[in-house]
Specification:
Structural class: mainly alpha
CATH architecture: Orthogonal Bundle
Number of strands: 0
Radius of gyration: 19 Å
Order of helices and strands: HHHHHHH
Helix content: 55-70%
Shape: elongated
CATH superfamily: Winged helix-like DNA-binding domain superfamily/Winged helix DNA-binding domain
Largest sheet: none
Distance between the termini: 24 Å
Length: 162
């Protein structure tokens, strides 16, 4: 299974820098050892995510919410592309393609067009890599182990129940 560490490793190896929003999102994952247990860590992560990055994350997730936009981002991951290439890859006419490109631009995932080329922003590249990791995580259909998430009363801080 691939997690946030893999995303950060890819970002580091490709010499990309994370934006403040991405760093805030990454910081919502608290090391379990720093908490009273895994359940407490999950609660802290949820609070941090909702408080600091909720609205910004919602905009990005909404922009990723269409298969044509994923195709556009995947095409641009290969490098800058012309409008015609994007049109060929998606099969969209001018109006719908403009709409999807504009939604990605408003979310900060696409850079302003330069010399008739569209390109990903650093945020766009990082978010797409994270989305690819999430795709792998969605295949994990194992049930969540509730017993492993409990903490015994009177046990040392962070000890897991059996």
């Amino acid at each position: 299974m691939v997690g946030l560490g893999a995303v950060l490793a890819v970002v580091e190896r490709t010499d990309r820098r994370l934006t403040d929003m991405q760093l805030a999102t990454a910081s919502c994952f608290v090391p379990v050892a720093a908490c009273a247990g895994p359940a407490h860590a999950m609660q802290q992560a949820a609070r941090r995510l909702a408080g600091r990055t909720g609205p910004a994350l919602a905009v990005v997730l909404a922009a990723l919410g269409h298969p044509h936009r994923i195709t556009l981002l995947s095409t641009l991951l290969e490098g800058p592309a012309t409008y015609r290439l994007l049109q060929r890859r998606t099969g969209l006419k001018a109006g719908p393609l403009y709409h999807h490109v504009n939604q990605l631009r408003l979310a900060g995932l696409l850079a302003p067009k330069t010399r008739d080329l569209y390109d990903l922003t650093r945020s766009g590249r990082n978010v797409l890599l994270a989305a690819l990791v999430m795709q792998g995580l969605l295949k994990d259909t194992r049930p969540r182990a509730a017993a492993a998430m409990t903490v015994e009363v009177g046990s040392p801080r962070g000890a897991r129940g059996r």
